[in-house]
Fold:
Amino acid sequence: MRQPMVAGNWKMHGSRESITKLLGTIKANCDTIPAVDLVVFPPVIFLQQVQQLLAGSKIQWGAQNVHEQPSGAYTGEIAAGMLIEFGCSHVLIGHSERRTLFNESDELLAKKFMAAQQQGLTPILCVGETLIQREQAQTEAVIIEQLNKVIDLAGVEAFNHAIIAYEPVWAIGTGKTATPEQAQQVHALIREQIALKSENVAGKLRILYGGSVKPDNAATLFKMPDIDGGLVGGASLDAQAFLDIAQCSNSYY
Ligand code: PGA
Structure:
C-alpha cells in the first residue's frame, strides 16, 4: 500500500503574513487527514518561518529548486545542505517552469536529483509533455527520456527514496486538467518504465498528478490505481482548497 501524498507548490507567491494564515489553518485541520502525507513548497526565503510554524506538526516542507553543487561560487543559488539546515525533507526537481523558463535540461536535472539525495532530501521529479508534444503523439517518448536520464545517472534503486510527479505542461495553471484516464495512462507508463528495471521499486514508488488539481476534480483523479496523490499549484494557496484536495486522497485509502 502506497501512502498518498498531497504537496503544495506555492511558486513565487506568499508573504510573511499570508503564510502564517495559510499554515495556521492547514495545521489546525491536518489531523483530520491522517492517511495522507502533506508537504508544502514555499519560496526559500520563507523556509525559516515555515520551519518555525510547522515544527512538531505532521506537515513537511521543502524547496522548489536546488543547485547541483554542494557549495561554491554560484551567486544566487541554494545548496541541498542549506535546505537540510532549515528542516526541508523534499525538493522539487524539474518542474516544467524550471525546464522551460530556466532552460534546465534532463542532464542537469539528473545531477540536481543526485545532489539532493546525497544530502538526504527526497526529490520529487517532475515530468510531463507540452501540448505540441502530446498532439504529435510524443508523450510516451518524452516521459521515457525524462525518466531515463535520471535512471541512467542515479540508478533505479534511487527511486526507493524519490517521488515522481506527472505534470502535463498544458494542464499547469491553465484550468485544463488531464482526464483521470489520460493521467492514469501516463502514470501506468511511468510505473512500467521503472518496473522494467525493478518491479520492487516500481510497486512502492509514489506517482503524483499535477496540473490544475482542484477540490472538484481531485477525487476522480486520486481514484485511479496509479495516481498516489497530487502536486497542487494554485489551489494550494487556499487553505480550505488544499485540505479538501487532501481529504479526497484520504478517503480512497
Ligand atoms: P496548478 O500548478 O495546480 O496551478 O496547475 C501545478 C504545478 O505547477 O505544480
